[in-house]
Amino acid sequence: MDLPPGFKEKLEKKKVCGLKKSLYGLKQSPRDWFERFGKVIKLQGYIQSQADHTMFYKHLREGKIVVLMVYVDDIILTGDENLELERLKKTLTREFERKDLGPLIYFLGMEFARSKKVEVIDKEKYQRLVGRLIYLSHTRPDIAFAVSMVSQFMHSPNQGRFDAVYRILRYLKGTPGKGLLYENRGHLQVDVFTDADCAGSVIDRRSTSEYCTFVGGNLVTWRSKKQSVVARSSAEAEFRAIAHDICEVLWIKQLLEELKVASPLPMKVFCDNKAVIAIVHNPVLHDRTKHVEVDKHFIKEKLENGLIVMPYIPTVEQVADILTKGLPKKQFDDLVSKLVMNDIFKLA
């Protein structure tokens, strides 16, 4: 290192100059630079890692994070919050001379490649869309089953599940005026259509229970819900579904009584499983249904009390089937019409 021009003549031979700051190339320069760099980054709210002092990170709201890694004077920025990344870039530009090389390609002799086949899934977007569909399904029973399926994967969406959500949205876009029609049909008969899709879930083989409850021929309640335990047979799945559905009609009966509205008895529970109907009417104990005795005796009690009857209905006419599984278009459209759903724009 040489003295600047003009200083040699003024200084004696045995005197030296003291540097007021580090210069590039000195032994202590990298350490001094890193200390200053660290102070600037920490002032932005970043924490220096104790496991690797060359890494700084900042936790943001909703579980998001931005990470900065530095090797000598090469810096990598990564994270899932674009606004914070841009703000950090501006800070680095203001405090240091830097050059943005764009997306990471080469670093420490390694080449980083990206594949277009692997798509980034926005979990928050999936949750927002499904949340809105759940809200809409409160007045659109025709999408209740589809929404119940996509809502099972709120924390593990993938492209296929996104496609299913978009398909529901396309259906809604094609039927914007579809709504429930309530008419005075001169009676308040309570009817419930109940069904169960035995072992329908390919993930855990749990069954799905569903029901549609009509009062005076108007749809008032409906639900599609996965059962909490695995059913070993279709009869077992049906027993659990029917017992739950009877609780629903008993609640409706109590509500009507409080309002002093007369509803004829017995209430009808339509089932498309002849074996289940035969078992609940047969006083003989069946070995295959010992583990669902509580549900079976609950159903039998309501039958003997005259609160309900269980007429058989063919599967093709089972309205609740629309809440159990995906159906062919013709069958789906037929069942939607039986739900008394009409285009409200045409009615106006």
Description:
By secondary structure, the chain is an alpha+beta fold. It has three domains: 29-108, TATA-Binding Protein; 121-176; 178-347, Nucleotidyltransferase, domain 5. The chain is built from ten helices and 13 strands. The chain has helices at 29-43, 82-95, 123-136, 144-150, 159-174, 234-258, 274-281, 293-304, 329-338, 344-347, and strands spanning 47-48, 55-59, 65-71, 74-79, 106-107, 110-111, 178-180, 190-197, 208-215, 218-226, 267-270, 308-309, 341-343. The chain has a five-stranded mixed sheet. A four-stranded antiparallel sheet has the order 1-2-3-4, covered by helices on one side. A hairpin with a 2-residue loop joins strand 3 (65-71) and strand 4. Helix 6 (234-258) crosses helix 8 (293-304). The radius of gyration is 34 Å and the shape is elongated. The model has no long low-confidence stretch (mean pLDDT 86).
CATH architecture title of the largest domain: 2-Layer Sandwich
First and last CA, distance: 91 Å
Largest sheet: 5 strands, mixed
Oligomer: single chain
**CATH structural class of the largest domain:** Alpha Beta
Q: What is the number of helices?
A: 10
Q: From the alpha-carbon coordinates, what is the Rg to the nearest angstrom?
A: 34 Å
| CA-based shape | elongated
Q: Which sequence of SSEs, written as H and E, runs from N to C?
A: HEEEEHEEHHHEEEEHEHHEHEH
**What is the helix fraction of residues, given as a range?**
25-40%
**CATH topology name of the largest domain:** Nucleotidyltransferase, domain 5
Q: Identify the strand order in the major beta sheet.
A: 10-9-8-11-12
